[in-house]
Amino acid sequence: MNMNHLEVFMKVAEKMNMTEASKALFISQPAVSKALIQFENTLQVKLFIRDKQNGLVLTEVGKEMLSLARQMKEIEDKMVQLACQENKLLRGKVKIGSFPAASTNLLPEAICLFRSQYPDVTIELMEGNTNQIKQWVEDRTVEIGIVASPFDHYDVHILEHDSMVAIMPENHPLQAEHEVSLEQNRNDLIFCKGGHESAVLNTLHEQQIPFQESLTVQTAETLVHMVQKKLGIGIISKFTLSSVSHTLIVKEIIPQISRDIGIIAHSFDEATPAAREFVKALGQLYRSSE
């Protein structure tokens, strides 16, 4: 199997566009098309459906081949990195998935530490919500991911313990209260998705508190803006809130809702040397007491 063809296949599957793939690979579009056809001929399967309306679409076998191709690429990277490590020189790339608050709060210092030790390793960061990152880890789009609990079946290193709080504007009727009851104020709550929902819904279910979804937003910035406009009481994690500039009042909530933030991978033991070293750098800075 031609590894160059494998590289072309993965890039086309990533971009779902021949022109964009050719630009990313720094080769001509006809060369991309030729390599893809040769790769399909070698495997004797169709990897893409070429649709005039929808463009390129992966076939079912193409999806399975893409997952295997990424695993092969990981193995190739691991071989190169092991050889470099043996020569006391670590090279290669670490592909990381992270949600925005983790990128803001955890990654800058970790990247600085890692780069000081391994300047020849490239870091590629993809941002999304926890569910997206888990899927990226699952299909090996990224090698490691920083997500909020639950961590499902993945290997995990806990970095931070986190809890949810309520936020409200100044002069709110509950400003003098020490804690905000979710049950008593359930019609006035604004929830933020992107990793918080599992912890919130699980706790509400356990406490038999009816969930009233009056307003749900996707980002912390939007939540803060909605609360500033006095549209309700925001429910957000302390960790995420710390990544957003605001002047809102912060209150503890009843019942308390907690979650963990950690690094996940299929297997840390089987990760590339560069990925293992990056995990080690994160652990040195943020490892939480279990």
Explain this structure.
This protein has about 290 residues and is α/β, with parallel strands linked by helices. The protein is about 45% helix and about 25% strand. The chain has eleven helices and twelve strands. A hairpin with a 3-residue loop joins strand 1 and strand 2. The strands form two sheets. Strands 3, 4, 5, 6, 7, 8, 9, 10, 11 and 12 form a ten-stranded mixed β-sheet that branches. The protein has a two-stranded antiparallel ribbon with strand order 1-2. Helix 1 packs across helix 2 and helix 1 packs across helix 3. The protein is elongated and about 70 Å long.
Identify the notable features of this structure and list them briefly:
single chain; two-stranded antiparallel sheet; 11 helices; 24% strand; transcription; transcription regulation; LysR_subst-bd; WH-like_DNA-bd_sf; WH_DNA-bd_sf
What is shown here, in short?
This protein is α/β, with parallel strands linked by helices and 290 residues long. 43% of the residues lie in helices and 24% in strands. The protein has eleven helices and twelve strands.
